[in-house]
Amino acid sequence: MEETNSLKYIAVILLFLFYGLLHYQEEKKDSLSSLPVTSGSEALRNLNDSDFIPAKAKLTEYRISASLDVNKKILHGAETIWWRNNSSYPTRELYFHLCPNAFSNSKTEFLKGRGLPQKSYAHVILNEVNVNKTRANLSYVLPRNGNRFDSTVVKITLNTSLAKGDSIQIDFLFDVVIPKAVSRFGYDANERFFFFAQWFPKLGVYENGKWICEPYYSFTEFYSDFAHYKLDINIPKEFTFLSSGDVVRKSLDRTNATYTVMRKNIHDFAWVAAKEVTTFTDTLTTAQKKKVAVHYMLQPTNEDSKERIFTAVKNAFIYCDRNIGSFPYSSFAVVDAPVKAGTIGAMEYPALFTFSKEYFSPEFTKDVEELLIHEFAHQYFYSLLANNETAEAWLDEGLATYFSQKILIKKYEQRFASFKLFGYLPVTGMEFLSIERIPIIYTLTQIPKPFESDLLAEYYPYAAMGSLSDTSYQLLNRKVYQSVSYAKGALFLLTLENFLGEKKLLFILRQYVEQYRYKHPTAEDFFSVVRKYGRKNIDWLIEGFYKNSYVCDYKLLSLSALPDQHSVEVVVVRDGEAVVPTEVALYTEKDTLRINWSGKEKIKKFIFETNNIPIAAEVDPLRNNLFDLNFANNSYVLATQYSGATYLSVRWFFWIQNLLMIFGGLA
Amino acid sequence: MKIKEILVKGVRMIFAHRKFVLLFWLTNLVFAFALSLPLFSILQQGLSHSLINNSLGIGFDYFWYVQFRYIYQNALNALPFLLYAFAGVYILTQLLFVGGLLSVYTNSKKNHIVDFFYGSVKYFMRFLRLALIIGVLYFVAVSINVLFDYSIQKIFQDQEDAFIEFAIQIFRYLFFLLLICVINIISDYTKVAIVAVDSTKLLKSLLKAIQFIKKNFVKVMIVYLIMLIFVALGATVYNLVDSFVPKKPAYLLLLTFLIQQLLIIFRVLIRMYFYSTELIIYTDGEAETVSPAFEEII
């Protein structure tokens, strides 16, 4: 009986043990299936035998091992960061960006109520966080507005304070749920293109005794510190790989390929894995005879545009290398993103930038060229200087736009106005009225469209809605942000160029880049360089368009010959608050007389001494002040003019006649 | 009747009533003038003493255009509504005139302007009611087009094949244009059917016209297409000639204006040609409707 009872007890115990074992195996199986092919812990062990990471680095070091599961749309990662407090201030905290959490729900700062398709939601899963190999706790840092739905910033509170020169090691084991791309990061509709940007836990910037680690805002970009990066990225071997780094090793197994990539002194690391794409490598040479490899990844539909793309990148490279400074990297990647992969295709990262080309994009539109050149120019300002983009985006976007305008003007002859027929096919001309995207009033003539005209069109509607000094992420909306950071920033520089001269401004910008490379300059730093080398007072420009969102319109009110027959009176009016030094010209039957004017007075009379018969007068005859809202009233001709207005009206009259014929016919 | 015969007789019919071309053209001119005057006034107000005025006569200044659009954005935003409102009134005058035109077409002995306006007034209310029905059909066509557009965009929002999407969108546009043409043809033939038998039964005439189009579909469509080809040819010739006219000196603008008006007159003639050929096809197909006076002309 006792024996039977014992057997029963043993059976129960065995059953429990068996159940426990089963449960344990299941748990193990689950955790294993979510781990990368090269498991995180293995990767962490491997980190220690790297000669890349010195024990006490002077600069932050990132070592990441990541494995892409294209079927589950998950990226498994193991990351080690060595951080050294290089500031004079101690800290007991570490702040990190967790940018993929911007896609975690529709109420984050990034999405702000914008709903997404289910597949486009994404987040980071932090499986383990260690500080100096001891388990650490994280806490979320809410944005300033207290948005509890935003989890894009976390912090670790340390047990001890880190003084100047102290180092610390932080390890993360994480998984990223990859979104179907809506913005900058994710995979495309055909699941053949996986792009990774702001994908790993990344330190904020510790400066002047505080951490700058802003949430992922809806329209601004980022701010990060320079670091050395070494990554092992494991992807299915049928995928092609490009990244911000140089590939130092590639190993293959039965199904996957692992790329070991490195890049020093960069502040972000982006990469792409794509299949059914074409890759090319081109070599460009700097003015100092340094070879730079350019790795292109093109969509198959864009192979025909290869030369066009190469030429645009080469033009940008040569112009920037000669005029801004020697290109900073030994290689860079140009990635052609599918058109419908969110906004992946128009972004810059260190040593990598993306673009998209629409299926119908004829060369006369110059849209691909403009995009490529703009993104290339970022390699100097976004990548090399790396100012705080959440606060002073114009320092990067404005400068990149300014240079892209200059390169387009110098390297490409002319651009013609165009519109999209049926919303798809660009044709030269202008469309004034359409119904259901069918043009009703239009012209198909070739109308030259200066490259800068887009800046004006973007600037005018929001001219008074934001100044360059406004904190970028606090601007009213994306349109105001673009108007201020891109258009106004570039117009600021173009006006500065007109005032100082092209040669001088390029010299100043070269000095600025040289002086502040890897140093996160601010607008004040920029202005100090302009003042130092420009040797002209630019306070009017800073006051009017940097510190304030002033507008201006200089207007020539009247022109009259005085009774003495030897002098002509010209009256000029300044509308708006901005003051711009300018010139007033008097055109007579025989010559042109000019007077410089500080532009300060609201109304100013000029007396020109001349015996010649006056014809017209003009304020700012060279259109140096690109902020002037109306060039048409800058001049005054004594004789009433009709030809232009009549010509345009006759054209319009004819278009209306045709429109009426169409409507009349339909009835 | 063969198509060639229809076309020849249609031309004869237009020239037998050529004085009405002037009426159609002048009406168009007056409406276009009324719609162009505000623009001229705005332009002249901003440019009357500007150096830009002269340069705009020679070449287009895109900077000026960007600024002009910004400065006058409120007026320019309201412009499409003004255009549509005027177009609405213009359509009413066309309904009035088409009644007159068809009535004088059907009776060559009454080719006087008084007869024209007698017919205009006589058929105006019938044509207006027809225009309302046709308006509903246009609305349906536009709605179908919008629905197709939405569906295509939905289908392709997750696909990268831009060429196939474009090809399908082009088919959508062609289908939409075909719908518009068919409605236009129905509208025209219903008017013809009303006038040919002096019908007051609108729906009956509409159904009769649809049945007629169905029965003579090939002939109706071929003649309609030929008319459209004439319109396209006219536009092409105009663009070719216009491209050779220099912009300077300023008086050459008058030449441009004359060429433009020739094209408009040509378009008026084609519009009249549409109706004359449609009337011939209809009366040929529906023999009992032919009046003795009408037979005389053809």
Rounded mean pLDDT score of chain A:
91
- Alpha-carbon Rg of chain A, integer: 30 Å
Distance between the termini of chain B: 11 Å
Mean of residue pLDDT values of chain B: 91
Per CATH, the class of the domain at 28-220 in chain A reads Mainly Beta
The parts of chain B where pLDDT drops under 50 for at least 5 residues are: none
* Overall CATH architecture of the domain at 28-220 in chain A: Sandwich
How many helices of chain B? 11
H/E element sequence of chain B: HHHHHHHHHHH
Q: Given the helix and strand composition of chain A, which structural class is it? A: alpha+beta
The count of β-strands of chain A is 34
In what order do the strands lie side by side in the largest sheet of chain A?
A: 5-4-8-2-1-14-17-16
| CATH fold naming of the domain at 28-220 in chain A | Immunoglobulin-like
Per-chain topology:
The complex is a heterodimer of chains A (667) and B (298).
Chain A: H1 2-33, H2 40-48, E1 60-69, E2 74-84, E3 91-97, E4 123-131, E5 134-135, E6 138-140, E7 153-162, E8 167-177, E9 186-187, E10 193-196, E11 202-203, E12 205-207, E13 210-212, E14 227-236, E15 240-243, E16 246-252, E17 256-266, E18 271-274, E19 278-285, E20 291-298, H3 306-323, E21 331-336, E22 348-349, E23 352-355, H4 367-385, H5 394-411, E24 418-421, E25 425-428, E26 430-435, E27 438-443, H6 453-459, H7 478-500, H8 502-516, H9 523-534, H10 539-547, E28 553-561, E29 567-575, E30 582-588, E31 592-597, E32 603-609, E33 614-619, E34 635-637, H11 643-666
Parallel strand pairs in A: 1-14, 20-21, 21-23
Antiparallel strand pairs in A: 1-2, 2-8, 3-7, 3-11, 4-5, 4-8, 6-7, 9-10, 10-18, 12-13, 14-17, 15-18, 16-17, 19-20, 22-23, 24-25, 26-27, 28-29, 29-32, 30-31, 30-33, 33-34
Chain B: H1 3-16, H2 19-47, H3 51-58, H4 62-71, H5 73-106, H6 113-156, H7 162-196, H8 202-215, H9 217-244, H10 252-285, H11 292-297
